[in-house]
Amino acid sequence: MAGKLPVSPLALPLPALPPVAGVRLAAGEAGIRYQGRTDVLLAEFCPGTTVAGVFTKNLCPGAPVTYCRDILGQGTASGLVVNAGNANVFNGIAGLRAVEATANAAAHTLGVSADQIFLASTGVIGEPLPAHKIVAVLDQLHANLSEDGLAAAARAIMTTDTFPKAATRLAELGGKTVRITGIAKGSGMIAPDMATMLAFLFTDAAIPAPALQAMLAQGVDQTFNCITIDSDTSTSDTVLLFATGRAGNGPTDDPAALADFRRALGEVLHELAMMVVRDGEGAQKFVQITVDGAVTDASARRIGLAIANSPLVKTAIAGEDANWGRIVMAIGKAGEPADRDRLAIAVGGTWMAQAGGVVPGYDEAPVVAHMKGREIKIEVQMGLGQGRATVWTCDLTHGYIDINGSYRS
Amino acid sequence: MAGKLPVSPLALPLPALPPVAGVRLAAGEAGIRYQGRTDVLLAEFCPGTTVAGVFTKNLCPGAPVTYCRDILGQGTASGLVVNAGNANVFNGIAGLRAVEATANAAAHTLGVSADQIFLASTGVIGEPLPAHKIVAVLDQLHANLSEDGLAAAARAIMTTDTFPKAATRLAELGGKTVRITGIAKGSGMIAPDMATMLAFLFTDAAIPAPALQAMLAQGVDQTFNCITIDSDTSTSDTVLLFATGRAGNGPTDDPAALADFRRALGEVLHELAMMVVRDGEGAQKFVQITVDGAVTDASARRIGLAIANSPLVKTAIAGEDANWGRIVMAIGKAGEPADRDRLAIAVGGTWMAQAGGVVPGYDEAPVVAHMKGREIKIEVQMGLGQGRATVWTCDLTHGYIDINGSYRS
Q1: CA distance B351 to chain A (A)
Q2: Looking at the partner chain, which of A94, A328, A404 has a beta carbon nearest the beta carbon of B60?
Q3: Within an 8 Å CB–CB cutoff, is residue A42 touching chain B?
Q4: Across the interface, do B312 and A93 touch by the CB < 8 Å criterion?
Q5: Per-residue DSSP letters for A144-209?
Q6: What are the tens digits of pLDDT across the range B230-244?
Q7: Residues in chain B closer than 8 A to A353 (CB atoms)
Q8: CB-based contacts of A254: which residues, under 8 Å, 6+ apart?
Q9: CB-CB neighbors (< 8 A) of B331 in chain A
């Protein structure tokens, strides 16, 4: 885009990010696309680190996604290289070679085998990734590795993001206190499955890879898979969770023992996903949509996403117009069981429509006031069953057009 | 919206519209929402007129849609009342009563039974329709009925449309020359199934209702169901086709005898559908997307619509950026069989990407020139089978946000 974007009015501050034992990071300037800012991240994990990953369901994924899927089965990781500015997608054989060159060089630098190096790239599609620019800065990154590199890492992976995103929690596990910290980037091309973006989570807990994978998949399903900016699904979506084991808990895959860890992991994922929505391209309002009374939870989610993805609903919110007629339209087009005459819709806690029509004596004043705020709450009661889901999105504004009408220029 | 919208730069002129024997029309000012323009249409059909209809698949349809579906089975029609400015959707019992009041009054005016009166309403959702305002002008409309009322009818049904839409064709049927004329409105909330809008077609041919219905359904599937403005599906979509039989051909349902009529009907539907795209809210560019080599025709259409509905593709087109990476992304998210390494993409006839990467020696100059034009052509070759489809859409611009961020104000 032309010029620097203003910081989202919905931005949250970067939290304090204490080290995660067993993880060292460094950010550097490879000059792949951006000038005068960091654009590459190297992370090193201590021996014995386990890994879990969830990737885009887009059928035209980038070379790094294909590569990570291939090596994930081993369940262990020694390093991670991420670059911003070029997604290395749809580059054919050249894309594959760029992945291999980066992995081999990083493996050499860290003194491990190449299949222990995870990779992610984000940025423009269809332009060859100059891997040599990444390779050229690896030694310097290696020299700069630090347990205090998390905040710098969160900044190095940004593309159209207007603020860095990170979240951290503590959990009790096997008598020890463990830490989970995540960083994420993403502000457009965001939709299930799964929300587009890169997110990397680090914990000092000792957890076997299969248990880690199950918890990550479940957590992502309830968070990143419930947000949408523009219904577009990136070719590069990647969430990786690395567990170094340095906290000293005995490794366990017992679901009961992992309950508090699962809670903390879910909270970190949720917080990161909400930050991605808050940085939605052009976003001026943060929107939470809860659908209740659908025939199933899955049906409720599809209805919620139909509302969240409707350009007419999103532009109405941008215009501060509580246009519940468009919400009715979006519910109807979701293709899920719906009965017009049982529907009820509330905005900001005020029920506007019920039983197939406007609520008798409906007073628009509190709704008008709510629509002027930054945080919009929409509730839908389907009146059919027990299915329930909450999804999150942002409004659709001139800013989105500005950013995406000239991204490459 | 605030103020009058500028006419779409993609607008086409209204063609000459000779009378259709057996059809008389009148437009008037009911003042339902708009002031100083016509907003209500009355049409009268001669005895023996048959009718076919296709309606929105939105599960929260408006009261007029439910009503028309109920009476369509009889296969005959005597009149049609359409209003613009209020869609009579989600008004519960009041919506039903407004429909009944209008139908009863129009039936009284025309001297027919109420179940011979077809109705359609378009405009805002969720506000009670003041049927009495329509009823109040029926006598005047009746007095003004004229075979020359087609152009005025096309104007009376407009909402956010910036130009009136009509098309006409002649066909040979049973040794006679018959005419088919259609009028349409629609410029937003347009997506299959079926494209949102109202369209009314009139012919002097004699065709039994079942044959008429089959031809209309097939024609709509290849035209209105292949266009999209914003992926939103209206609650009011209605296409009605009235056949008066005044041409004097012997009624037939023989497919061979109806071949030329079917061709002409298809052309009228196609022309109307293209006009709706050309009046897409905020549209600056008309976009044709052809997908070939998919596993089936249906798969090709879903891929085409995924591209056509992608906000990132549409904003790139608005920015005159031939960003084929976003087209790859949209193909990948369609959920249809796709092989990244067999894909090829052309814009304006220039193949930019093939075999999983950019075309060697690709020269961007002709593509850049093509993107600056009003008519954009995108071709996708999937390389998997014989499935083929063409869909049409427009770009996504600031104009769309302007129009939809303040529609009710």
Answers
A1: 14
A2: A328
A3: no
A4: no
A5: H-BTT-HHHHHHHT-SS-SS-EEEEEEEEETTEEEEEEEEEE-SSS--SSS-SSEEEEEE-----H
A6: 766 667 788 899 999
A7: 90, 126
A8: none
A9: 59-60
What digits encode the pLDDT tens for the residues B193-248? 444 588 899 999 999 999 999 999 999 888 888 887 776 666 778 889 999 999 99
User: Closest Cα of chain A to B391: distance in Å?
Assistant: 19
pLDDT in tens, B60-101: 888 999 999 999 999 999 999 999 999 888 888 889 999 999
Smallest CA–CA distance from B236 into chain A, residue: A329
Q: Which secondary-structure segment (H or E) carries A288?
A: strand A286-294
Nearest CA in chain A to B344: A90
Contacts of A301 (CB under 8 A, 6+ apart): A226, A291, A389, A391
CB burial string B381-390: b at 16+ within 10 A, e below? bbbbeebbbe
